[in-house]
């Protein structure tokens, strides 16, 4: 694996004005909403002892910003796959890269890893900045275990969805069709759990394990038990690995066997 090529591709993708602007927009939006809530609650409670009782626990406060980030960032992921893989492939610019001594599988893995680094770094920075706001302005001591689970959970969910977009991107020729189907699938993944929960708690439980967007809630269950059941962590680990590894493997196989440029 050529890490120099990966880091070059990472820098090139991250510094694309549209990608960078989208990440900054979501970051400022999420931190701004979090800061607003922190200021309201901090000003409403003057006594330090009262603050310890009334203000929510660290993770619950942190989730205000993380919920905004987790909701909007998949749109950045869809666009990231579009600008780094789907669009260049359709325009034929990937064909120029393939003239060099690199296979299609290596190319898709390099592009995938460089995008994954963008997702990981963006998530870590946003979560740490959120924790800083909660502790310094909200005066709520950082729970390192909760912070670690939040970072891991969100990264796993985002990378799982990222792998899914690569599978869609390698399977769909039209760029507009890719964008439309990706957004549609994201919306379906978001609302399906709530719909199933209305009719069958058992189906909702099973769906939580197979929905990449639910993996963060499953991983954070030890510190944020909002689910109606205690998840089996072995199944969560297997589901996380499968969601990340299988779609990108299938993507490389599909791209290797097509005549797309």
Automatic annotation (TrEMBL):
GO molecular function terms attached to this record: ABC-type transporter activity
Domain of life of the organism encoding this protein: Archaea
Keywords: Membrane, Transmembrane, Transmembrane helix
Membrane-spanning ranges: 20-41, 53-80, 109-132, 144-165, 177-199, 233-250
Pfam families, per database record: ABC2_membrane_2
Gene Ontology CC terms, in alphabetical order: plasma membrane
Protein name: Uncharacterized protein
Organism: Saccharolobus caldissimus
Species classification: Archaea, Thermoproteota, Thermoprotei, Sulfolobales, Sulfolobaceae
